[in-house]
Amino acid sequence: MRTFKYILPIGLILLFVSLACQALQPVPPTVTAAPPPTPTSPPIPAAPAPAPSPTEEILDQPSFPSLIAYSLFAEDEGVYIHTVDADGKNDIRLTERGCVGALPTWSTDGSLLAYYCYDAERENSDLWVMNPDGSEKKYVAVLPGLPRLNWSPDNRYVVYFAPQPDGKENDIYVLELASGESEDITRDSRVWDAYPDWSPDGDLIAFASDRAPGGKALDDIWVMKPDGSDPVNLTNNGENWEDYHPAWSPDGEAIAFYRGGSLFGEDPEGGPAGLWIMDADGGNQRLVTAFEPFGVFDAPAWSPNGRYLAYVTGIEEEQDVWVVPVGGGEPVNVSNLPGEKRAISWSPDSQALVFTNDDEQDELSVYIALPDGSDTHPLLPEGRYGYGDWSP
After folding, report:
1. Structure confidence at residue 270 as a pLDDT band (50, 70, 90)
2. Superfamily of domain 3-390
3. How many Cα atoms are found within 13 Å in the side-chain-facing hemisphere of 19?
4. Model pTM score
């Protein structure tokens, strides 16, 4: 039943499939480094905060520093990686035709940009890394599908989840960017492991897993070392709840996650369902806001100042993006438009966020919003584009 466990929504994969058939050449199906297909150029939260309002936390004229990277579905049927300022100016294409550019993801310091060239025929992707201006593109490896990447704090590795070699479950992989080699760090686990998130100090990876003792077939939040050793269960709270999508706070002292109920029509101990946070050692688990998170594809997004969490609720076109103070309070709906929502990313000054909306006409757009909900508008006036990521 766990529809929220797909690596990417089916609609987006189909969209890339229709365009990739025209744009990409087949590449060898492997999860480790391979020779480049073409020559390349050289290589814990603050004290509880009140709900955001136009007069608190938000400047009258926000500066919106840094760039937003996104994928543009262009009129020439190509899909390209672009960067643009938050005011929609200085829109620059970074990739060329022949690469179906997908899921740009900034490194932790904003010095590098990872992205995929998707191959629909083989259902895998070439992973590339480049500078923010598009220079020094470097082929890294080919990966299955379009896994979401999470950078290590030192920018040497990325972590992601993908199918096990036998295809039955998911494992977590760490890929070294310099060599292009991937290591399955949960290969000794015969169950489902997914949603990895690297701690800010680089010492631990949080993830969701079905590996709890006693055969519990429901997810808990775990942490482990980056080589997969010393796994620790942080939310071993019985058979009534699934915990998933862990997200480290910016200071590394807390982890946010979703909790969903497995017993409907009852009120089992350990609930309710919703957005939760806990200390980094699993202690002091507390509810931030209650809702049923089934159907949520992305982890909650911390504001860089650690005071707010943004998240998605709802099913398909009824989804909305909400912002809530970490210490609890009234959530604010910052989207208020029909469509499926994905890819929340905060500005580095915590004064705005972007998200992708896929509406009923399958038109993909990136929206920029203030966290008090007072202003939400398309990043660009027109076009079919999505999966924006705000540079740190």
Report:
1. confident
2. TolB, C-terminal domain (2.120.10.30)
3. 24
4. 0.84
